[in-house]
Amino acid sequence: MAVRGKSATVANEGAKQAPLLVLGKIAEILNAFTLARPSMNLREIQQQTGLPASTVQRLVTNLVAHGFLDRSEDTFRIGVKMAYWAAAAAKDLDILQVVNPALKDLRDQTGETACFFRSEGTQRVCIAVAETRHALRREMSVGKIAPITVGSSGRVLLAWDPDLKERVLREELPQLTESTVTDKDELRRLIKQTRSEGYAITVGERIDGASGLAAPVFDSAGDLVGALMVHGPTLRMSYERCVEWVDLVVEHAEQITRALGGRYPA
């Protein structure tokens, strides 16, 4: 009797786990669709997921039946109904509720001020900040405005907004310090580099003796939401130290992107 009871328990546990395995495979299929690859046929889905062809065919058929995927002849794409569900998730979502915990964690891990910038015309404005606990600090506060052409967060905001970049580059570039980039060709090169590398590091461009490291955050359409930045005195944040923190800052930016239901642009 004890053996039969144990077998029954194992069977029940297996039954509980089986649906989770199916959900994992469904997630793999849905994650295979990207902005660069919005539609695929069954063979392409199988290649992207590595799942058996029979499993892909069975799950895709069910996903279409329930509105997770839409079908057009032999190709499939994320279902329009998903936007209906996503709208309910995004309603009442306050970006600051997502950003602020990430800023505090980034501040605690680096010891430096972490902040979040958005573009406003040809300026950048700080909308959230977690200030360093060091007595020696570079002043930063919510509502702080700076030219978008100077500093790491500005570099990020320009790198993923081509229209804003061209508009800014038609104007004269302000010089705030001896290290401020005022040559338009050089700034264009640095913006391109930022887009390629996925982050920006600047030293002394806005304020002498201050450094910044920034990375982008995106929404569900792959559009830029803002720039996550860590900044502080170059005495503590040398260029080399910024390089050491690149992965940390990028990971926090990706964390915010995921929490917003966002994705990187194609």
Task: Offer a concise description of the structure.
The chain has helices spanning 2-31, 42-49, 53-65, 81-90, 95-110, 152-159, 162-169, 184-197, 239-244, 246-259, and strands spanning 39-40, 69-72, 75-78, 113-120, 123-130, 145-147, 200-203, 210-218, 224-233. With 266 residues, the protein is an alpha+beta fold.
Please give the structural blueprint.
Blueprint: H1 2-31, E1 39-40, H2 42-49, H3 53-65, E2 69-72, E3 75-78, H4 81-90, H5 95-110, E4 113-120, E5 123-130, E6 145-147, H6 152-159, H7 162-169, H8 184-197, E7 200-203, E8 210-218, E9 224-233, H9 239-244, H10 246-259
Description:
There is one protein chain. This protein is an alpha+beta fold and 266 residues long. The protein is 48% helix and 20% strand. The protein contains ten helices and nine strands. The protein has helices at residues 2-31, 42-49, 53-65, 81-90, 95-110, 152-159, 162-169, 184-197, 239-244, 246-259; strands at 39-40, 69-72, 75-78, 113-120, 123-130, 145-147, 200-203, 210-218, 224-233. The strands form two sheets. A six-stranded antiparallel sheet has the order 6-5-4-9-8-7. It has a three-stranded antiparallel sheet with strand order 1-3-2. A hairpin with a 2-residue loop joins β4 and β5 (123-130). The protein is elongated, with a radius of gyration of 23 Å. Residues 1-17 have low confidence and may be disordered. It holds the Pfam family HTH_IclR. Residues 81-262 form the IclR-ED domain. InterPro entries: GAF-like_dom_sf (IPR029016), HTH_MetabolicPath_Reg (IPR050707), Tscrpt_reg_IclR_C (IPR014757), Tscrpt_reg_IclR_N (IPR005471), WH-like_DNA-bd_sf (IPR036388), WH_DNA-bd_sf (IPR036390).
